[in-house]
Amino acid sequence: METDWCDWLAEGLIENGCQYLSVALLEGAERVQEGVRKAADRLNFPLQSDQTISEKIGYEVALTYSYGKKRSAFLTHGFSLPVAMDPLMSSIYTGVAGGFVIIALDGTPPLPYSSGCDPVSLAMFAKMPVLELAAFGEIPLGIRQAFTLSEKYGTPVMLHLDTKIPLGDSPGQGKAGRRRKTEFEKNPARWAATPRFRFLLHKQLNQRLKDIAGSNPKDLVRLTEGKTPKLGIICTHANAALVEPWARRHDVSVLSVRMPFPLPLDPVSRFVETHASVIVIEDRFPTIQFQLPQREKVKGRWTDPALDRVFSWDGETLAKALDAWKAGKNLDLASAPSPDDPEPEGTLTKLGDLLAGFKAKTQSFTLVADKTPLTAGLPVDHFVSRGGAISVAAGFHHAGESDAPPVLGITDSSAFLHYGIQATTNAIYNTSRVKCLLLVRPEHASLLKGFLNAMEQVDTIPFNPGAKTATKKLKVPATQAVTFYTIPMEEAV
Questions:
Q1: Is there a single domain that holds both residue 291 and residue 367?
Q2: Sheet holding 157-162, edge to edge
Q3: Under a CB-based contact definition with an 8 Å cutoff, are residues 473 and 485 in contact?
Q4: Is residue 355 part of a domain?
Q5: Does one domain contain both 397 and 320?
Q6: Each residue's pLDDT tens digit, 294-333
Q7: Domain range holding 368?
Q8: Are residue 208 and residue 273 in the same domain, yes or no?
Q9: Do residues 258 and 354 both lie within one domain?
């Protein structure tokens, strides 16, 4: 995450009158909050920013501001958004009274430790409007459009930030937007909707999406006209910087879509009708192609196996594909990036070496690790979903025989704060004997210390995998149901 990215976000939020920002546990969260604090102080604007340990909680707190007619935003990784699906789906039905924007960071291809969730297709499933950017410098514009849509139609709106878009210049000195007072209007038929009222809200939701798709299409699409009618390209706004240079060289028309859902069908359908063949360039899931009413002459991920193998467009792969289409040749992209490509090594080489040596000394242990940024390359016996190491270790305890090898879970503080707290509570409640290495990020150290000290049935033991006593320390019988061996990351790396 780049500094100017954080600055653009802070300026864009304050310029558009956002008064609350909830930030999920993600890399660079502290820099985002610092940028927000500095911009809020400089412009004397009451923008509060909190870092939340759970996407569900963060979504709910930010959503509450919008119930009271204030503008609020929720910043998260796209792959973590499913954690907030319960309040997210509910808020799509009930809608909002003030502007509410979900800012979803997304990398293509996804990070190796991510869920692989495509936030754009998730938003389509949830019936949430999505706006895209072509550069980080468009963040203030994107935030303004998202808040405008949200308030006009009373719905949460996603602003999708793909990390491959250009960074742009540093932002200028903007002005603060309008401050709003909390005004909650009681309406049980909406905010406390029973199944009967939910049915009515669902009909309103479908009509709302039709209205949004037909609203001001000039702002939601960008047409770059070429002279050849044989080929036209429809692309997401995030891919426009890759598509348009090729199109200019070959005099091909490009329709760049700023709102991939709900798709502005009138300008998109006219574009399809005026070209003999159309290619849709989008990442990971055929969101745009899926919504097209006429698909006979349209190639895309949904209908072309070669396109479906491409997990993330880059300049070289895209040029190869477009050259083949223009020449009327069969597409051959077997060497393109794929989700099945080998994953990169973990980032903690030193910690990996320490644990490799530790594993060599303690062959009797079964090592189970959450798949997180800090554990991705570690030599373990079994990777599980984020937060699952404690639960799996508890399961081994209940399922194992007296002579079964001991189990050691491995997780990091981010995954623990997300999901491990519930697993720890469950292990204590069911008297499971669990031992877990807890890799503590510096930004989480004080929070974790206070939490673990407050839990009477948890042992917390500082641990150094490279020490000669490491194996002995792990073999000492636990006095409590759950034992955490904490490793400060500033010491391990």
A1: no
A2: 48-51, 18-23, 71-77, 100-106, 157-162, 130-132
A3: yes
A4: yes
A5: no
A6: 888 888 888 887 777 776 777 778 888 888 777 766 666 5
A7: 349-492
A8: no
A9: no
pLDDT digits (tens, 9 = 90+) for 31-57: 888 888 888 888 888 898 988 888 999
**Segment (H or E) for 371:** none
**What is the DSSP secondary structure assignment for residue 261, as one 8-state letter?**
B
Q: Are 195 and 321 within one domain?
A: no
The answer to whether 19 and 179 are in contact (CB under 8 A) is yes
Do residues 452 and 467 both lie within one domain?
yes
Q: What are the beta bridge partners of residue 77?
A: 105
Predicted local confidence at residue 341, as pLDDT: 43
Is 297 part of any domain?
yes
Q: Please state, in angstroms and as integers, the Cα–Cα distance from residue 196 to each residue in 119, 199, 200, 202, following that order.
A: 30, 5, 7, 10
Report residue 437: phi and psi, to 5°: -80, 125
Q: How far is CA 123 from CA 107, 135, 243, 292, in A?
A: 16, 21, 24, 17
Residue 461 is assigned to a structural domain of this protein: yes
**Distance, CA of 260 to CA of 251 (rounded, Å):** 24
Q: Which of 184-188, 383-387, 400-404 has the lowest mean pLDDT?
A: 400-404
- What is the C-alpha radius of gyration for the chain, rounded to an integer number of angstroms? 25
Q: What is the pTM of this model?
A: 0.83
Q: Residue 33 is encoded by which pair of tokens?
A: 């909050």
Residue 436's SS3 state is: strand
Task: Specify whether the CB–CB gap between 257 and 221 falls below 8 A.
Answer: yes
State whether residue 486 is helix, strand or coil: strand
Q: Which residue, among 352, 307, 346, has the nearest Cα to 325 in the 3D structure?
A: 307
Overall size of the chain counted in residues: 493
Four-CA torsion 144, 145, 151, 155, nearest 10 degrees: -130
228 Cβ partners below 8 Å, 6+ apart? 250, 251, 252, 253
Where would I find the H helices in 327-432? 349-361, 388-399, 413-415, 421-429
* Pairing relationship of beta strands 221-224 and 253-257 according to DSSP bridges: antiparallel
Helix or strand holding residue 5 (H, E): helix 3-15
As a whole number, mean pLDDT of residues 383-390 equals: 86
The C-alpha atoms of residue 62 and residue 72 are separated, in whole angstroms, by 6
* Residue partners of 43: CB distance under 8 A and separation at least 6: 14, 174, 175, 176
Pair (459, 405) in one structural domain: yes
Identify any residues that bridge with 280 across adjacent strands, giving them in sequence order: 234
Please, what is the average pLDDT of the chain? 83
Three-state secondary-structure class, residue 420:
helix
Same structural domain, 230 and 150: no
pLDDT-wise least confident of 239-248, 262-271, 310-319: 310-319
Confidence of residue 433 (pLDDT cuts 50, 70, 90): confident
Q: CATH code at 380? A: 3.40.50.970
Q: What per-residue confidence (pLDDT) applies to 349?
A: 54
Crossing angle between the packed helical segments 55-67 and 85-94, to the nearest 10 degrees? 20
DSSP 346: P
